[in-house]
Amino acid sequence: MKKTIIIYGSTTGNAASAAQTIAEKLGNGATVKEAGAASKSDLTDFDNIILGSSTWGDGELQDDWFGFLPTIKEVGLSGKTVAVFGVGDQFSYSDTYVNAMGELYDAATAAGANVIGSTSTDGYSFNESTAVRDGKFVGLALDYDNQGVLSDDRIAAWVAQISPSL
After folding, report:
1. What pTM value is reported for the model?
2. Of the candidates 39, 58, 59, 57, the residue with the CA atom closest to the CA atom of residue 49
3. Residues 65, 105: Cα–Cα separation, whole Å
4. Which domains does the chain have, with CATH numbers?
5. Which is deepest, 24, 27, 29, 84, by most CB within 10 Å?
């Protein structure tokens, strides 16, 4: 059986909550780990990797990622199936909404991963996002501040989409 790990960066707890909910809905015994506690073996020992982060400042990754993102590039993700999720505030930060997810996507693709799980931008209200490619989010976009009631359904739909590939 293929093993899945969810590695996330969270400051206020929203990305951590999303990671736990994704793990529960996957129902495959996925390991959940903070980016600040992740190691090279977390990338080599797992077949499927889900990367997530909240977005901060002018669209940056959550702080815990700064120490671990270079490890992704160093180890490489060739042959791995990767999905990404991002948490942000689409109204207060409408010009950088879930940009951190775009950064994780770029790192995973540059490292040779097969990235799955794009989602529609329908139902969101933002100006710009580096996480939008070809008119879709490169992963799952969540906004607990303004659309928290939609998060469970969005996670469930995304997990249903990616599960067959994991």
Report:
1. 0.97
2. 39
3. 13
4. 4-165 (3.40.50.360)
5. 84
Cα–Cα distance between 131 and 85 in angstroms, integer?
10
What is the identity of the amino acid at 154? Answer: R
Whose tokens are 């990367």? That residue is 51
- From residue 161, alpha-carbon distances to 17, 33, 59, 107, 158 in Å are 20, 22, 27, 22, 5
Q: What string of pLDDT tens digits covers the 166 residues of the chain? A: 689 999 999 999 999 999 999 999 998 889 999 999 999 999 999 999 999 999 998 899 999 999 999 999 999 999 999 999 999 999 999 999 999 999 999 999 999 999 999 999 999 999 999 999 999 999 999 999 999 999 999 999 999 999 999 9
Give the pair of three-digit tokens for residue 121: 């931008």
